[in-house]
Amino acid sequence: MPRNTCLHAARGPIVKATLFRKARQFFNGSLDDPNHHTQVPCPTEAHITREDPESPTGVIIVPVSELQRRKADMRDIPISHPLLSIATSCLKDKYQERPNASRICQSLAELKATVTYKDTRPGEEITDEKSNITGVAQPQNAGKEISVGRTDLHDAAERGDVEAVSWLLATPVDINSRTEEGESALSLASRRGHEEVVGLLIEANALINIQDNDGRSPLYWESLKGHVAIVRLLIWRRADINPCDKDDDTPLGIAAQNGHIETVLTLLNAGANIDHQNKAGLTPINLATRCCEVEVVRLLIERKANVNICCKAGTSPLYTASQNGYTHIEDLLRRAGANIQTVKADDHGHSPLFEATLEGNKDMVDRLVDAGADTNVATTKRGYVPLGLAAQNGHAAIVQTLLRAKAININHQTKNGRLTPLFLASKDGHVDVVRLLIQKKCDVNICSKGGISPLAIASKNGHTDIVDLLVKAGAKVNLTAESGDVPLGIAAEMGHISVVERLLQAKADVNDQNKV
């Protein structure tokens, strides 16, 4: 056996200097497709020296060929043999110093020794009546239920224990065995982001397209984490680019959502479906927009992503950007040809302009109006338009912007109540809005369903300033509703003395009586 042999040292230079370098070269166009090279050549012992910058000083590196020979030597040891448990346990600091661990494991394997041992400390027993060695107790896992089918390789891969994984791969271990959750050692290492362990498992020909019970592959996990080096390695080793999990999410979608732009670029270059929709109907660009990943959105637009695909709830990327006030993304989408009139296809039917108006987002309203948004589209069941909504909520600045729009219908009425923007503003006492609408020559005498005028509703609610503005603008002070009510009678009944006085000054007929 070579002096100072260390399995832990063997894996680092081999994986990093060979697999990841070749994956990078492949993506840079300086290496052929690995489909023509099914086995990545590994350096021999002569190729790795003490001066190698990736080789620990004073350590002799064991090449993969040596590991394979050791594996062949151990072919007669069954996978359940107690030596394997004791070997992996020896690699843990609690039981043996790491520099000697591999030598001890190798010696045990060569001798095939029978060892009987029982620690006197509670909870540290490692023997039973059937077998002299069943494994070493692991206090850190005390009380935890281990899934059926879970192996030492799963545990080592999940915690990123390179030395333990290296040792286990030199034994007749089933590299693709799964846990109860359907996860392989490669899946677990990928989910935890253990780059070196992933490299070891791939080099040992682990299945790279294996999916867990939720349909998540190693490429999915590495895309989620943004580990672009491993993503490139998996793609180079012919990983499926578009595997879907149980929610139909793909690696590209999950990378876009998390803002991993280099991973997104790598997946796109490998042919990932740029417009794939998950179960919710969300595309990568919609996912990136929701998370305000500006640069990812920019990249997807450059790669010709469809900017007008709506999800199942009816929201487009532009709608999402408008709703959340993501102005930079809204700019990118608009310049890319996003449909400004894309309407939310649910029962509410809100357009981007309507949503921006509802939120009182003047900057967004300005941008949408300047981009040519139709201000007269009624996008709710009740037939509200943005102007009516802004008037009702007292957003005077937004009203001013909307009134600048071409072909604005200043007297638009809602479906059921036939309410105009002036009526809505008069009802809720928004003086500035009423003034703006009057300045733009709105009709001050259009009545709602039931014949109630803006003056009547302002009188009922005691809005004296609005009553004054309406009277000066030519509102009919004696206009009678279908119920027989007139503004003066309504104001008197409600006890609004100042309104009564203003109406009397405007020559309201004192002989008109409210219908009883």
Automatic annotation (TrEMBL):
Residues 132-141 have a biased composition (Polar residues). It comes from the Eukaryota. Residues 121-131 have a biased composition (Basic and acidic residues). Keywords: ANK repeat, Repeat. Signal peptide: none annotated. Residues 121-145 are annotated as: Disordered. ANK repeats lie at residues 148-180, 181-213, 214-246, 247-279, 280-312, 313-345, 348-380, 382-407, 417-449, 450-482, 483-515. This is Ankyrin-1. The lineage of its organism: Eukaryota, Metazoa, Porifera, Demospongiae, Heteroscleromorpha.
